[in-house]
Amino acid sequence: MKTEKADWEGKRGDKWNDSLSQMEAMLRPINKPLIELLNLKHSCSVADIGCGGGQTALEVYSHAPEGTKVYGFDISSKLIESANSNLAHKSEHLVYTVCDVAKSMPKPNAFDKLYSRFGVMFFAQPEQAFLNLSEWLVPGGEVVFAVWDSPQRNPWIRIVKEVVGQLVNIPTMDPDLPGPFRYSNKEVFFKILSKSGFRKLQVKDWTESIQIGGGLNAKNASEFAIASFGIAEHLFESGNEAVNEGKLRLEKEFQKYEKAGKVTLKASVLFFTGIV
Ligand SMILES: C[S@@+](CC[C@H](N)C(=O)[O-])C[C@H]1O[C@@H](n2cnc3c(N)ncnc32)[C@H](O)[C@@H]1O
Question: Is the distance from the beta carbon of residue 102 to the nearest atom of ligand 1 less than 6 Å?
Fold first, then answer.
């Protein structure tokens, strides 16, 4: 069986890295509400969990009061390499490190705040990872975790799934396994977080438009989604014919949502907040 480390360090991490600039451009609208919830009023020490190519950490850093230190952690060495190479200047106040947060610990009580944009749903060992994270925070330290709401509330991915499902059989996802919608059930996530020592838990719904690939037309958005969304991997398992047919059908669907040459669709995110 493939482990999460191999998956994100290997094929999955490489795939995310290959489409990094378009993925990050597409997800950029999530940074604003996340940064608001981080409530960065005084200089402090902040950790980005599953920081990927580092776009969010960079934005958090540029919005934070002077003296703030932002540390990005990710299991994928390739993504950490990209995050570092995207930095215009090296700074000891913005540092990216390869780290499996379920296994390693920088230091207990190391951070005042900790957040993740879509990293925490992919932990292979969630209990261990969340327990570690709660220990990384100083007493009273705060968390903000952005996770996807259900596919029904996320047409940007639901449409892709429907097209793939017309062509190949998609096995039913076990909701307990790593995946983008794992914590779309609020009660499930509240339970894990409170078991790991997080308190005063709250959740805020956020629904806005996002642009596929950060502003691509229907043809390019279809190419991008088939090449980079995990759900489209089922097409590749069935061969070129399925892939090409998938691209055509998806382009047709995306045309319905193309505005000024950009495929624009609704996305819903749940922001979980709490303290230790
Ligand atoms: C969907 S990507 C999101 C990346 C980034 N936060 C963003 O929004 O662009 C999920 C990230 O979580 C990372 N990840 C998964 N499991 C991890 C773990 N146990 N420790 C650290 N990072 C992990 C992956 O390598 C990947 O970069």
Answer: yes
Tokens for 242, please give them: 């399925």
Residue 219, both tokens = 């043809």
Q: What is the mean pLDDT of the chain?
A: 94
Let me know how many helices (H) and strands (E) the chain has, helices first. Answer: 12, 8
Closest CA to ligand 1's atom 13 = 50
Rounded to a whole number of angstroms, the CA Rg of the chain reads 18
Q: Which two tokens stand for residue 259?
A: 């505005």
The CB density around residue 158, as the number of other CB atoms within 10 Å, is: 16
Q: pLDDT-based confidence at 253, cuts 50/70/90?
A: very high
Q: Whose CA is nearest to atom 4 of ligand 1?
A: 52
pLDDT tens-place string over residues 118-152: 999 999 999 999 999 999 999 999 999 999 999 99
Beta bridge partners of 71: 47, 95
Q: What's the confidence (pLDDT) of residue 5?
A: 45
Residue pair 150/269 in contact (Cβ under 8 Å)? The answer is no
Tell me the best of 122, 123, 183 to mutate to test the pocket of ligand 1, counting ligand atoms within 8 Å of each CB and taking the most.
Answer: 122
pTM over 0.90: yes
Domains of the chain as residue ranges with CATH: 4-152+173-211+269-275 (3.40.50.150)
Q: Whose CA is nearest to atom 2 of ligand 1?
A: 119
Nearest Cα neighbor of 113 from 129, 89, 133 is 133
pLDDT of res. 2? 41
Ligand 1, atom 19, lies closest to the CA of: 100
For residue 27 and ligand 1, the question of a CB distance below 6 A is answered with: yes
- Give 24 Cα–ligand 1 centroid separation in angstroms: 13
193 Cβ inside 6 Å of ligand 1: no
Closest ligand 1 atom to residue 20 Cα is 9
